[in-house]
Specification:
By secondary structure, the protein is an all-alpha fold. The protein contains 4 helices and no strands. It has a domain of 111 residues.
C-alpha cells in the first residue's frame, strides 16, 4: 500500500516539476498558456498534499488495526486461559454448560460492539456543499486568475534568479 502511495506521489511531483518548467518556458510567448501551466502546477501540488494526507491517514489506520489485532490476540489468550480454568472448575462442580454460554455471550458482545464502531466510522462522510452562486463564482474566478498570475510571476522570478546565479 505504501509503495502505491509513494509511486503516485513521485508521479505528481514529476508533474509539478514539468508544469513549473513549462510555465516559465512559455510565459514570454503566450501568457495564457503559462497561466494554464500554473493552474495545472497548482492542481499537481494539491494532489501531492492530498496524497500525503491519505498516506498519513492510511499509515495511522494500519497502525491502529495492528494495535487492535494485538489487543484482540492478547484478549483471546486471556480468554483461553480463563476458559481452561473455568473448564476445570466446571468439571469439578458439574456446571459446565452455564459458564460456557456466559463466556461466549461476553465474547460475542465484544465483537458486536467493535463491529458497530467500525461501521459507524465507515459511514461518517462529510456532506458535500453545492455552490450555485454564479455572482460569487465570477469573483472567485477573477481572484483565482489573479492568484495564478502571481504564482507565474513568482516562478519566473525564481527561475531568473537561479539562472543569474548559475
Amino acid at each position: 500500500m505504501s509503495e502505491q502511495y509513494q509511486q503516485q506521489l513521485a508521479e505528481q511531483q514529476e508533474q509539478a516539476r514539468l508544469w513549473s518548467e513549462r510555465a516559465v518556458k512559455v510565459r514570454v510567448e503566450d501568457e495564457q498558456k503559462a497561466l494554464q501551466c500554473v493552474k495545472r502546477l497548482r492542481l499537481a501540488q494539491q494532489q501531492i498534499n492530498l496524497l500525503d494526507q491519505q498516506y498519513q491517514q492510511s499509515t495511522a489506520q494500519e497502525a491502529k488495526v495492528r494495535d487492535d489485532l494485538n489487543i484482540i490476540s492478547e484478549q483471546l489468550l486471556v480468554l483461553k486461559n480463563k476458559k481452561e480454568i473455568l473448564a476445570a472448575r466446571q468439571n469439578r462442580a458439574g456446571i459446565q454448560h452455564e459458564h460456557r454460554s456466559d463466556s461466549m455471550q461476553d465474547v460475542q458482545s465484544v465483537f458486536e460492539r467493535w463491529e458497530g464502531a467500525v461501521v459507524s466510522t465507515e459511514y461518517e462522510i462529510p456532506d458535500a456543499i453545492v455552490d450555485t452562486d454564479n455572482f460569487a463564482n465570477e469573483f472567485e474566478q477573477e481572484e483565482d486568475q489573479l492568484a495564478l498570475k502571481m504564482m507565474l510571476d513568482e516562478l519566473t522570478e525564481t527561475n531568473q534568479t537561479s539562472a543569474t546565479k548559475n
